[in-house]
Structure formats: structure tokens, C-alpha cells
## 1
Amino acid sequence: MAPRGHRRRDVPTFFTTHQVAGLLGVSITTVVNWTRQGRLKSQRTPGGHRRIALQELLRFAREHDYPLPPEFVASAAPAARPPGVLLVHRQRDFAQLVAEFLTLDGTIEVLAATDPVKVGFLLGRRRVRVVVVHLDDGEIDPHAIARLPWGEDERPVILASTTLRTHDTDRLVEEGVVAEVIEQTADVDAYVSRIRRRLER
């Protein structure tokens, strides 16, 4: 337990190039060049922004003798449940906007899919904490995700997204298929806040 008045510092799972530059004491341009050269591996958000995983940052820092805060080294073991979100949404502009909001601080990994094959592939290869299924698309049945053979403590929280809430969508919650129905409106911040609350539980 942290002493009173001292807040424990949480270590993100992913970092922006700006954050990496600050931690290593180099310029953002240097970090970008490292990623382009393949010396520092990075991933791209749906909006095209680079993100560097904690494990990759630790590897690079060790190999090149860059000191990091002790809490970073202590967090070397990957988290049992990474804060990942899978967005299943065919409206690419809206999905990209949601992803941008979620990844602003570099602590959440966002994956995106628009067809059943890719959804199945991502859920089989990556562990995510929240899956958001946009019901209006009609491509993915949330029942199918709920029925997957999840292991203990592996099933993600499934959220339904829709522009028109009806008795049928509410019944998904009553049946335990989804945890919540989120209405898609022009208020993207409110939409994202509902997803973030599920990640924090």
C-alpha cells in the first residue's frame, strides 16, 4: 500500500513517440527514425499514429543502455489482462474517431475489424478486455462472440452499439449477451467514456 499522500505511478502498456522521447531523453524525430529503421518496433493505431509497447521499450532501453524508472523494469511481465478494445464497426470515420479518443494517453490498445473472419482472427490471437459490436451493421451477432469457448477469466466485456435503442437491443442485456447498450450519437466523448468505464472495472 502506497504511503498517504503518495500516489503509485501506473506504467502504461503502450507509449506514444513523444512519451518515449521524454523517457529516453532524445528528440521525437530520433524516435520516429528508430521506428522507421526497424530498430524500435512500433504499431499503428487505426488513425495511423505510432505506439510502442512496454516490452519493446524495455528491450530497446536494455540493449542501448538507456536508464528507465524502476517501476518500468518492475512491470516487465506482461499484464494478465491488457487494456485492449476491439471495435467492430463498419463506419470507418466514426470508428477511427473513437479509437483516437481512446488512445490519446497511449495506455489503451485499440483493434478494429469490419467482418466476421477478422473478428474471429483477432479474438483468437489477441486478448482484449472490451468488444464493441455495432448492431446496425448486421455483420456480427454478439451471441456468436458470447458463445466462443472462453477460458477462465478470458471472456471480454461485450458492449452493443446502436443509433436506435429498441426493445430487442435491451433484451441483449437482459439475456446477459452484452453488458451494456451504447447509443451512437454526435457526442463521441460520452460514447468513449462508456467504454473507458468498462476498462476501469
## 2
Amino acid sequence: IPLFQKDGKQYVCLNIHDFGPVNMEAVALSPIECPATGSKKSFQYQVKKIPAFRQEAYEEKELVFYYHDREDRFRIRLNPEWNALFTNYPSLDFEDYFNIPMGQLTYNSLIPVLKKKVRKMKLAKGVDYLMQFTRHAFPYENDLAAFGKEKRLSPEQTLFYQYSDCDDRAALFYYLVKEIYNLPMIALMYPDHITIAVAFDHPIGEPILYNGRAYTLCEPTPQPQQTALGQIPENRRHQAFEVVYAYMPVTK
């Protein structure tokens, strides 16, 4: 979404996608004053709640993956109309992006089933199960090949589309761990990749230290070298990264 300056103020063209490429600096703009009487809050793109869709609009999709040579199948409910909500949705900071919720019907068709799957597992194994699900339940493809452009998918969109990349899987894995275990997490941004690390009571493998806490790397995207919890891939071992988002559960 393009930004432009006018009279010393920064503006954003919200519906530029409806018109195609426009050079905001070259075209003559006709401003229309829209006084915000009584408004005290700034506009935000943050999505906190998904509208209720018609139940008959939902479709069923089967996801299949193998965990330790055991086949697991999930039948989840997804709504194609969801994608229209995000046609012109911009790329946000990772805190807002990772916390886009699922619609209630999709949530109810997946999260309780996953909770049941991991209920009797130890914590680390349960997180590993969610990591392997995110890694292998749907095929990988980069955005340019799949969509012709950069496109960040919300957790529900990742379940809907045939292909997804590392941004999408990091967001989905974060969402699953948050909803099922609500553990502290950090998002690690490399020059060409993003991944997630989770804080356990006792870190596994090679810990990643951030703000005095040890985190365990949990790679939710397929890699040339398939890694276990806490295992840093050789091609990332000496590569610099930035923590672009840190999640700490709110204690009640």
C-alpha cells in the first residue's frame, strides 16, 4: 500500500488495489475533507474478530500427514469467502499478522481435534506434533511461484490455499501453539526466512537466548535438512537473525 506526503502529513491510499499502479506523486489529487469529529482512536488494520459467515458457505477439506509413520487425517471446515476479506489487506508488523484469528467454525473443526491428539503427549512432543503438522500437512511453494507476488496468509488462509511459504507456516504454527499451549515464543527473521522458537521450562537442543530466556527452535517449514526440536540447520548456524516479534502469555 503506497504512502505519500501532502502538506507535511503522511497519507496511505487504502484502495489502490482497485485501480492498479498509480504514481501518487505525479497525478493531481482532489482532497475531500473528512473531519473526524469526536474521534479519539487511530485507524488500525489489526483484526481482532472475524465476522460470522453463512454455514452453508463452508466447504470441507481433508489434511493428511504422517507422524512417526502413523497417518493422521483431519477434516476441517473452510470458507472461500474468507479470502475476499483480505484481497487488499496489506503486510503488517508481525504482532498484528500472527494474531489474526480463525473464524469460529474453522477453529472448532481443527483446534479441539489437535488438542485431543496431543492431550496425552508430553509438552515437547505435543509441540513437535504441531510443528510436524504445520511442516507436512500441505505442500510448500514460495509466494512468487504460487501467487505471482508476495502474499502473507493468515492461519486460516494457509489451511485453505494449496501452497504456502515460511511466513504463512510461522504464523500458523505460532497460532496453534498459542491456542493449545499458550507458551512464550519469538519469531526469528533471517534475510530469506522466518521461523519460530518456543520457551519450555527446560530448553531442548541448542537454545536461543533472548531477554534472559532460553528458547527452543521449532522449524515449521520444510527444509533441505529436516530438523528436530532445538536443532539449528547448518545453513543457519552462523547466519544473523532479528527477533521481529516476542509473545509473552498474559498471566491472570
## 3
Amino acid sequence: MPPAKKVPNASKKLNAEQEALARAGAVDDNIDDENKKSMRYECRALKRSIEKEEVATGQYNDERLRINYFWLVAKKEKEDKEAELRNKNREHQDLREKNDITIKIWRQRLKHLLFQNLDKETMVKKQGQ
């Protein structure tokens, strides 16, 4: 096995900017003009594509917010209607109970009147005899 390479001193290390410049200088820039032109067109097309996607993302988020708001409003309306229906049912039940009580009272009165009438008839018959 070959011996391990020694790590250069920290003082000889290049900072990140110098390292980037060194790498950029090492790149072969012998690209013809036609290739550069096609790369520029591709870059512009990609930028337009990114802009379209950003617009679509914004529209998507707006639509999502609108739907969410509509859902919340519809949910609130549903809860309100359910509460209103419960109140109507309670009111209807109360009226039904009140009506049943009223009918019961009138039946009792009618029984008493019939009994009184029968009692008076029997008294009249007794007096008539």
C-alpha cells in the first residue's frame, strides 16, 4: 500500500472563494458560439418555465384558499341549519306536549260536565216521581 498523503497545513488551505475561482479557471471555455447560443435559449426557456410554474403555484394556492374558505362557510351554514332544525323540533315537541295536556284537561272537564248532567237528570227524575 502506498503511504498516506499528508494533509497540507491549515495556513496553506484556500478559502472557499479562492477555491471556487481556481475551479472556474480550470474549466475549459472552448465552447463554440452556436453551443453558447443554444444554451442561452435553453436557459431562457427554463426561466420561462419556472415563471409559469410559479404563476400556476400561486393560482393553485389561491384556489386552495378559496375552496377552504368555501368549505368553512358551508360547514358553518350546515351547523346553523342543524341547530335551527333542533330548535324547531324542540318547539314542535313542546307544542305537542302542550296540546296533549290541553286535550287531557278538556276531557276531564267534559267528564265532569257529563257527570254533573247525569247527576242533575237523576235528581230531576227523583223529584219528578
